[in-house]
Amino acid sequence: MRITHRAVGWLTALLITAAALAATPATSASAKVTDGATFNDPLVKSKQYAISKRIRSLIDKTPGKTKKSGGAVIRVAMYVYSSTEQATVDALVRAAKRGVTVRLLLDSNNTLEPGWTHYADYFRALERKHRTFRVSFCPVGRGCIGSVHPDSNNHNKFFLFSRTSGSKRVVVQSSANLNKTNAVSYWNNAVVLVNRGLYNDYLAYFNDLWKQRPSADYGRVASSGNAKAWHFPMAAGDPVAETLARDVRCTGNTKVGTKGRTIVRVAMKDFYRLEVAQALWRLADSGCLVDVAYDEPATFQPYLGQSEAVVATLRRPLTKPGGKIRLFLAGPSTKANPKRRLIHSKYLLIEGHFGGKKNTKVVFTGSHNFSYGSLRDNDETLLRVRSAKIHDQFRGNFKRMLSTL
User: Fold this and answer.
1) Contact by Cβ (8 Å): 352, 288
2) What would the 3-class secondary structure string for the chain be?
3) pLDDT tens-digit series, residues 202-254
4) Nearest CA to 188 among 28, 11, 345, 396?
5) Which residues pair with 361 in a beta bridge?
């Protein structure tokens, strides 16, 4: 058979195209999701939207409806949305166009506040245009579940993917709202976990939020694998203070911590709960090393007295040798320190003796501040993860934040 130059050229082009297609990962062939943490960096322009980009990547890799299977489902529970984070909503719309079922739950008090009511019309228009896209707003003046206090709200910030990037049942728990401020002015984090039991727990919680049945004592708690989640409001108890008192010991480590001592690190936006401060002080008095980075109390005048009590407790002189508490004050940029930024993250790291096991690394994170509102009033989530990898990612973020204060 005679092969012409034109045939050779056509064949070469075909091979090049085939190779290019093979090198371009399709949604179904994408690398599977792995557990890990993502952080923005408000001081580095290329990293300011790192969390949003990670979430959008998962949205764009969520498979739509085909002849062989139905589309996946994305569920979002979010406190604040503004058009400065339109790219993420655009990604959800693209998913809906592919046949992905999208359920977006938003807090009315912060998304529909005066001047922003057009968002309701905007999302209703999307619902009319895309039959798989649905949005629900919590009732004005309360959360979807939390309803006792006039300032109750849906403070959650999580994404659930039934399928994405070749993985099933993916949970993304973030501290960040969907707006520009959370990317360029605040420190934030997000944790991605592939965990069937945890996903099912979050799904049940999301469905309860969607039903909008009020409760002063929701208090859902579930464990799965290396993860445990608390969902609020909770009428009694304090899982953070109780865990610190019950599960943390300060000595006996041989591989982590420092000189055998457990290290506790806190990065927190709102820190008003005296019980948590007292638990941290008792740990330091028992020999733990405690570092607390928190937002300056003067920023939150209604809670100034509570914040001052927390700081006074953490500054109380220790009665036993070996332990230590260091406080790091965050806040908006100043002339003296233009790199200073507010901490919007809410996390607690334990490196050492935890739950009866030495040399353990644990992360507590979520939407849950160390405030009484997060405990008693709001729709919130606190997530605990036992993972050396994820802990060390958070520890790196903690050290980065401290370097700017």
Assistant:
1) yes
2) CCCCHHHHHHHHHHHHHHHHHHHCCCHHHCCCCCCEEEECCCCCHHHCCHHHHHHHHHHHCCCCCCCCCCCCEEEEEECCECHHHHHHHHHHHHHHHCCCEEEEEECHHHHCCCCCCHHHHHHHHHHHHCCCEEEEECCCCCCCCCCCCCCCCECCEEEEEEEECCEEEEEEEECCCECHHHHHCEECEEEEEECHHHHHHHHHHHHHHHHCCCCCCCCEEEEECCEEEEEECCCCCCHHHHHHHHHEECCCCCCCCECCECEEEEEECCECCHHHHHHHHHHHHCCCEEEEEEECHHHCHHHHHHHHHHHHHHCCCCCCCCCEEEEEEECCCCCCCCCCCEECCEEEEEEEEECCEEEEEEEEEECCCECHHHHHHCEEEEEEEECHHHHHHHHHHHHHHHCCC
3) 999 999 999 999 999 999 999 999 999 999 999 999 999 999 999 999 999 99
4) 345
5) 351
- 74 phi and psi, to 5 degrees? -115, 130
Are 386 and 360 within 8 A, CB to CB? yes
Lookup: tokens for 252: 């006996």
How far is the C-alpha of 372 from the C-alpha of 351, rounded, in Å? 26
Q: What is the pLDDT of residues 153-187, one digit of tens each?
A: 999 999 999 999 999 999 999 999 999 999 999 99
Whether residue 77 contacts residue 158, with contact meaning beta carbons closer than 8 Å, is answered with yes
Dihedral sign of CA atoms 191, 195, 196, 200 in order: negative
